[in-house]
Amino acid sequence: MISRFLFLVACIALVAGCQTTHQFAQYGPGWHTWRGQLHYSNPRRSLIGDVLVIKHGDADFQLEYTAGPGLALITLQQDARAEKAKGPLSFGPPGHLRGWFSLRAKFANLSPTARMLSMDSPKTKERFDFRFAQ
Predict the structure, then answer these.
(1) Within a 10 A sphere around the Cβ of 129, how many other Cβ atoms?
(2) How many whole angstroms separate alpha carbon 127 and alpha carbon 78?
(3) CA–CA separation, 119 vs 125, rounded Å?
(4) 119 has which bridge partners?
(5) What is the pLDDT of residues 10-59, one digit of tens each?
(6) N or C: which terminal CB in the chain sees fewer CB atoms within 10 Å?
(7) pTM (two decimals)
(8) Which helix (DSSP H) or strand (DSSP E) does residue 56 occupy?
(9) Cα dihedral: 104, 68, 89, 65 (round 10)
């Protein structure tokens, strides 16, 4: 009985040790970059901060939203297979990041010279107003 238990524990440890973490693409040639300000609002809060958005093609997307030097509010990484969010705004009930992760589709066809972008997310009652510097 103990040998079966030890065998099961060893198998679980072996399978868990073989998992790899997803590697997102790194910034490089051919990526588009937008820098500017983002006014983010939902029924509970309204925030204005600096934003950096980079994308490559339709799939690779990264966003960093900060409130001053060194205070990242949310950092997103997203591609066709995975998505990841970090920072204080990333915590909440299931589904609360739906608006944030839908931004990738909005940026997919955005001109690299765009000066602004606005998006409402009716399901999450969020609004995103971007203003970009040239």
Answers:
(1) 15
(2) 20
(3) 11
(4) 128
(5) 444 444 445 568 777 776 788 899 999 999 999 999 999 999 999 988 88
(6) N
(7) 0.79
(8) strand 46-56
(9) 0
Contact 102, 125 (CB under 8 A): no
Residues 6+ away with beta carbon under 8 Å from 109: none
- List pLDDT tens digits, range 66-123: 998 889 999 999 988 899 999 999 998 888 899 999 999 999 989 999 999 999 998 8
Do 72 and 64 touch, CB atoms closer than 8 A?
yes
Q: Kindly report the length of the chain.
A: 134
| DSSP label of 74 | E
In angstroms, what CA-CA distances link 127 with 3, 14, 40? 58, 45, 6
Q: What's the CA gap between 91 and 87, in Å, rounded?
A: 8
Residues 6+ apart with CB under 8 A from 118: 127, 128, 129, 130
Radius of gyration (C-alpha) of the chain in whole angstroms = 19
